[in-house]
Records
---
Amino acid sequence: MNQNDYLKDISDIKNMMNRSSQFISLSGLSGVLAGIYALIGAYLGRDLLRHRAPSREYETASADPTLSIVAIALGVLVLSVVTAFVMTYFKARRQGEKVWNSTSKRLIVNFLIPLIAGGILALILLRDGMFAWVAPVTLIFYGLACVHASKYTLRDVRYLGLTVVVLGLLAASYRGYGVEFWALGFGVCHIVYGSIMYFKYDRN
């Protein structure tokens, strides 16, 4: 065996270890589509608020558009989840990997814990009329969910999560721009990181 053979064996062993400890079949293109859905949702939400609220203090001025905004957000979420599942399923099949295995289960559990906690807190804030805090809370907890789950998948997910957390903190400081920060966090960030993941992993 020459040195190249040893290096190849080491690389193969490393890839096998990564496959056993990380779910690497996440589709970057599904992230791009999720970002597009989010931008459309943010546009629709902003349009609702523009017609119903007299100023940029819309988050605290009126609860009238709340149900419509929640419905739009849920629609974006459902579309994103379905798209991610379908595209990840087909990518996993091409790679000969199971979608539902011990690693993907750990990924989902670690992702859902912060996400569900943030969703419940957002509902409490809506109930109490604290609309200005919904955007920061959802961004921060979504970012934490990505960071928390990133050890079971591609490293790029960690950087996505950290970026969204920073945007959530900025949204907490500029609460009159919640929809704009939503568009940046859930829209632009997903498109950027989804594109990076697509060109790094999906095209091979």
---
Amino acid sequence: MQADDLGGMPDAVLVDARPYGAYSKSHIPGAVNLDLFAFHWADTTPSGMEALAAQAARYLSFAGVSAGRDVVFYDDVSGMLAARGLWLCRYLSHKRSYMLDGGMKKWLAGGRDAEQGTRAAEPGSLDPRPDMSVIAGFGEIRDRMGKIRLVDARAPPEYDGTVARAASAGHIPGAVNIDWVRNVGEDGAFRDPGELRAIYGEGDAVTYCHGGYRAANAFVAMSLAGSKPRLYPGSWGEWGNLGLPASRG
């Protein structure tokens, strides 16, 4: 959604998903802070994905996210943190969830006001109702390898194994590397749907990265391009520490 759209959503919860230090220095008036870097998950067993829903609902509720109420996430640009918040809401079947395109960068570039300090959030209530159509676990990917299209949203050195951030290095066999930074233009906003389609091609896919943040941005980008992606939240942080197959190069 665009900045001008906020005017028509006076009761929306506006969530600044950046770390507290960035939020306290300058944020959109009325926004509350929920550092989504602080919510990491690396267990995509069936019970782990069920627990993810319960914990995510509790965490988002701290910021006032509630069923039946709009929530808008933003960060510095159309980045990984706001996308993470949006994906978590979609996983919880909270459809009234949005991402502010361009984030703080585009907001300020438009001459809009900002404020400093903090704002206390009024806790909300959000039931965990997992939508399994937007998520994939390591078991499914392992068992259907070669039949699922995989998009690795990490930087090339992580993908090719030059940089190792887990017990094993490289990528899930068959995955294609599309660095998430390609999704965002110089103004901080997502590229238009046609450009994103040219980047990702046609068809659905499972996105992953190292911890499910960059992959969330790819999830949103592919959705804008008209696909129906899923996200593997455990990503390489889980896969690369389980002794599962890995490719390099």
